[in-house]
C-alpha cells in the first residue's frame, strides 16, 4: 500500500530511474565478469602449466579495465539514485507542507507542534532513507544476488542449483526478522516523536516552567521517555545481532561446506574443474555481502515504512479547514454581520455557544462582554470561518459565510486576536503582513493611526527592530498594538478586536481606546471587551454567560436594567 504510494512519486522521475538502473546493471556485470576472466585463465594456462607472459598481461589488463569500469558505473549509479531520492523527497515535503497549510484550526488545536515538526522533517527524512535504501540497496543487492546465481548456473548447472537451495532459507530469515522487528520500530518512532514534543514544549514554556519550579519534574519525564527509547533500541539490537549476523554467517559457511563436499565427492574430471571451483568459492563469498547488506538495511527499511505511514497519515488527515461551498462568489460591500441561531462545540460534547443570534448593521459597533470562558472569542473564531458551527448560520451582507471565497473573507475581515502572534523578523515586516503591497509610508501611517508609532520610534532600530520569536521582547499591550496596525493596514470592512486580557498599562490602554474610536468610523466593528470603559459608545452591547446572550442593549439601557452587566460594571468601577 505504502510502497505503491511511494512509487507514484517515482513516476515523474522515470528518466533518472532508468539511467540509475542502467548504470547499476553495467556495474554489476563488470563486477561479476572478473572471476570468469580468472577461471578462463586457469582453464587455459594454469592447468596445462604453461603461461606465456602475454596471457598474464592480458589477464591483468582485462581485470584492471573491469575494475575501472565497475568503479565508474558504481559512481554514476550512486549519483543517479541519490538524485532520484532527493527529488522524490523534495516533492513529498512540499506536498506535506501544503497539506498542513490547508488543515483547519481544529487539527492544530489537537496536534502538538513538535509532532508536526517531527513529521515534516524527521519522518520525511526517513522516507528518503527508504528510497536510498530500498531502491538503491535492496534493489541493487537483489540484482547482484540474481547476477551471482546466473553466473553460477552458467558455470555449472548442478552446483548452481545446490546454491539456489539456500535462497528460501534466507527469505524465511528476512521475513521472520521483519515480523519481529516492526512493532519495535513503531514504538521507537513514536517515542522519538514524544521526545521531540516534550523538548519543544519545554523550551517554549521555559519561563513558566522556571517560574513554577517544575524543572525536576520535567527532567524526570524526559528521563522516562529516554529510558523507553533506550530499552527499545536495545531490543532491536539484540534481535538484529541474533537474526542477522550470526544466522547469515552460519548459512554462508554451510553453503561453502556443501559446495566443497559436493565437489569432493562427485569430482568429475579432477583438475579440469579447478577453475570452476575457484569461481564458485569467489561467488559464494560475494553472494553473502549483498545479502548481509540487504538484511542490514531491513531495520532502516522498517523505520522508513513506519515513517512513511505517518507521513501519508498526515497527508490523508481529513481535518481540513472548512471550505467554500457553492459556486456564487458574493462580495462584502456593506459589512453587515448576522448570527442566526448559532450553536457550537469544539469537541462535539461541551456546547460552547448556545443558539446565538444577533445582527450588527453596517458601520455599527457591537461589544461582546462576559465572564472569562463565556464564549466571546469563539464568536470571532466562527466569524472568521476557523470552525463551522454545528447549528445555525452566519450571514455576511445576507449571504452565508461558506459561500464566500477565502480571499474575499481575508481581504474584508480584519482580526486583532486576543493573543497576537508576531513572527521572527522586524516590526515593519510584522505590520506589513496585513497588506503585502503596502510600502514603508503606509506602514508608518497605520502605526500612527493606532498609536503604536510612539513606542516603535523609541526602539533602538525603530521600524527595523528585529523581533524575537513570538515577539517576546514586547509587552502584551505593545504586541496587540502592532497586531492592530497590521489589521488596519488592510483597511477591512469588518473589524474584530479581541481585547487582550493581559494587564495593559494605562498608556497603551488609552492608545487602544483612541485608535478604536477612530477605526470604528465607517466600518462594522465587533469589540470583545474586558474593560467596560472601552465600549460605552457601542451601538449595542451583548452580554454573554456560559455561551448564551443573557442581556443586550446600549450601555445606558443595560445599566438601567440592573442585571449582569450592571454588576460587572459596578465591580470594575470598584476596582478603579
Ligand atoms: P476570555 O474572556 O477568557 O477570553 P472567552 O469568552 O473568549 O474567554 P472562549 O475563548 O470563547 O472564551 O472559550 C469558551 C469555551 O470554549 C471555554 O470553555 C474554553 O475552554 C473552550 N475553548 C476555547 N477554545 C477552545 C479550543 N480551541 N478547543 C476546545 N475548547 C476550546
Ligand atoms: Mg477570549
TrEMBL record:
Cited CDD domains: ABC_6TM_TmrA_like (cd18544), ABCC_Glucan_exporter_like (cd03254)
The entry's keywords: ATP-binding, Hydrolase, Membrane, Nucleotide-binding, Transmembrane, Transmembrane helix, Transport
Domain ABC transmembrane type-1 residue range list: 18-303
Enzyme nomenclature, EC number: 3.6.3.44
PANTHER family listed in its UniProt record: ATP-BINDING CASSETTE SUB-FAMILY B (PTHR24221), MULTIDRUG RESISTANCE ABC TRANSPORTER ATP-BINDING_PERMEASE PROTEIN YHEH-RELATED (PTHR24221:SF430)
UniProt cross-references to InterPro entries, sorted A to Z: AAA+_ATPase, ABC1_TM_dom, ABC1_TM_sf, ABC_transporter-like_ATP-bd, ABC_transporter-like_CS, P-loop_NTPase, Type_1_exporter
Keyword Cytoplasm attributed: no
GO molecular function, one term: ATPase-coupled lipid transmembrane transporter activity
Gene Ontology cellular-component terms listed: plasma membrane
Protein localization: Cell membrane
ABC transporter domain mapped to chain residues: 337-571
Source organism per UniProt: Syntrophobotulus glycolicus (strain DSM 8271 / FlGlyR)
Membrane topology: Multi-pass membrane protein
Protein's UniProt name: Xenobiotic-transporting ATPase
Pfam families assigned to the protein according to its UniProt record, in alphabetical order: ABC_membrane, ABC_tran
Major location category of this protein: membrane
Superkingdom of source: Bacteria
Positions of transmembrane segments: 53-76, 130-153, 159-180, 237-259
Amino acid at each position: 500500500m505504502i510502497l505503491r504510494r511511494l512509487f507514484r512519486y517515482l513516476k515523474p522521475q522515470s528518466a533518472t530511474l532508468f539511467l540509475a538502473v542502467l548504470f547499476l546493471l553495467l556495474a554489476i556485470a563488470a563486477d561479476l565478469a572478473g572471476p570468469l576472466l580468472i577461471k578462463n585463465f586457469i582453464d587455459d594456462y594454469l592447468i596445462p602449466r604453461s603461461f606465456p607472459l602475454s596471457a598474464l598481461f592480458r589477464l591483468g589488463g582485462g581485470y584492471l579495465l573491469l575494475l575501472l569500469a565497475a568503479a565508474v558505473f558504481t559512481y554514476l549509479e550512486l549519483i543517479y539514485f541519490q538524485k532520484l531520492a532527493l527529488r522524490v523527497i523534495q516533492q513529498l515535503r512540499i506536498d506535506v507542507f501544503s497539506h498542513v497549510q490547508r488543515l483547519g484550526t481544529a487539527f492544530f488545536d489537537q496536534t502538538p507542534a513538535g509532532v508536526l515538526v517531527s513529521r515534516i522533517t524527521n519522518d520525511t527524512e526517513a522516507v528518503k532513507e527508504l528510497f536510498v535504501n530500498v531502491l538503491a540497496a535492496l534493489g541493487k543487492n537483489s540484482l547482484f544476488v540474481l547476477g551471482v546465481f546466473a553466473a553460477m548456473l552458467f558455470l555449472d548447472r548442478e552446483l548452481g542449483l545446490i546454491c539456489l537451495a539456500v535462497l528460501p532459507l534466507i527469505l524465511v530469515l528476512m521475513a521472520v526478522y521483519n515480523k519481529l522487528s516492526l512493532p519495535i520500530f513503531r514504538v521507537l518512532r513514536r517515542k522519538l516523536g514524544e521526545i521531540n514534543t516534550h523538548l519543544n514544549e519545554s523550551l517554549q514554556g521555559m519561563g513558566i516552567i522556571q517560574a513554577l519550579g517544575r524543572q525536576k519534574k520535567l527532567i524526570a519525564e524526559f528521563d522516562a521517555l529516554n529510558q523507553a527509547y533506550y530499552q527499545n533500541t536495545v531490543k532491536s539490537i539484540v534481535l538484529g545481532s541474533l537474526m542477522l549476523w550470526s544466522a547469515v554467517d552460519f548459512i554462508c559457511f554451510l553453503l561453502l561446506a556443501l559446495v566443497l563436499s559436493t565437489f569432493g565427492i562427485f569430482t568429475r574430471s579432477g583438475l579440469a574443474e579447478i577453475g570452476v571451483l575457484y569461481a564458485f568459492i569467489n561467488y559464494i563469498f560475494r553472494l553473502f555481502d549483498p545479502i548481509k547488506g540487504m538484511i542490514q538495511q531491513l531495520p532502516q527499511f522498517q523505520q522508513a515504512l513506519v515513517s512513511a505511514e505517518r507521513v501519508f497519515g498526515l497527508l490523508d488527515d481529513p481535518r481540513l479547514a472548512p471550505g467554500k461551498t457553492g459556486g456564487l462568489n458574493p462580495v462584502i460591500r456593506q459589512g453587515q454581520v448576522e448570527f442566526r441561531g448559532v450553536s457550537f462545540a469544539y469537541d462535539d460534547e461541551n456546547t460552547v455557544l448556545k443558539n446565538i443570534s444577533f445582527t450588527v448593521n453596517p458601520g455599527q459597533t457591537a461589544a461582546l462582554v462576559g465572564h472569562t470562558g463565556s464564549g466571546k472569542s469563539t464568536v470571532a473564531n466562527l466569524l472568521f470561518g476557523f470552525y463551522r458551527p454545528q447549528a445555525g448560520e452566519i450571514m455576511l451582507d445576507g449571504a452565508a459565510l461558506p459561500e464566500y471565497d477565502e480571499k474575499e473573507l481575508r481581504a474584508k475581515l480584519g482580526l486583532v486576536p486576543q493573543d497576537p502572534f508576531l513572527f521572527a523578523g522586524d516590526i515593519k515586516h510584522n505590520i506589513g503582513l496585513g497588506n503585502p503591497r503596502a510600502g514603508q509610508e503606509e506602514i508608518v501611517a497605520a502605526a500612527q493611526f493606532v498609536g503604536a508609532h510612539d513606542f516603535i520610534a523609541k526602539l533602538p532600530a525603530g521600524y527595523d527592530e528585529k523581533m524575537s520569536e513570538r515577539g517576546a521582547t514586547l509587552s502584551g499591550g505593545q504586541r496587540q498594538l502592532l497586531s492592530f496596525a497590521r489589521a488596519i493596514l488592510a483597511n477591512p470592512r469588518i473589524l474584530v478586536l479581541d481585547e487582550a486580557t493581559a494587564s495593559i498599562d494605562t498608556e497603551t490602554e488609552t492608545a487602544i481606546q483612541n485608535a478604536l474610536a477612530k477605526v470604528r468610523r465607517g466600518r462594522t466593528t465587533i469589540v470583545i471587551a474586558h474593560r467596560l470603559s472601552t465600549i460605552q459608545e457601542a451601538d449595542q452591547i451583548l452580554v454573554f454567560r456560559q455561551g448564551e446572550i443573557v442581556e443586550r442593549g446600549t450601555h445606558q439601557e443595560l445599566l438601567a436594567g440592573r442585571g449582569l452587566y450592571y454588576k460587572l460594571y459596578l465591580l470594575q468601577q470598584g476596582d478603579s
